[in-house]
Amino acid sequence: MNKLCALILVFAVMLNASAGEPASQAGGQKSCTIGPTEKTFGKTKWLVYGCDDATMAVIVSAAGNPAGPFYFAVYREAGRYRIVGEGTGSKTASGAALKDLQALSDTALDGLVREAARPKP
Hints:
Largest sheet: 5 strands, antiparallel
Structural class: alpha+beta
Order of helices and strands: HHEEEEEHH
Number of strands: 5
Distance between the termini: 22 Å
Helix content: 25-40%
Low-confidence stretches: 10-27
Mean pLDDT: 83
């Protein structure tokens, strides 16, 4: 599972770097290894990792989650939060989680990203 998480985090950082950020930001590397914090989306468990610059969160399916392996990346683009995801697990489970995430306001998503970026004890 650790190798999968690391691979997903690398893909998420690459995705964010190519998702329309200004060139000065896109060239920088992000570290999205803060956490995880366990959350429930779509009635299944997810692990939320924060990035060191508090601009993005990576949400990875927890062990036993039928959506797994799957991840979502939540980040700001053009003044709004975007949610993108990729994986090969149950589309029903990942779809239910996506529906819950999409129901969150930009303010709530901002709170999720900031909470994820706070160091855990």
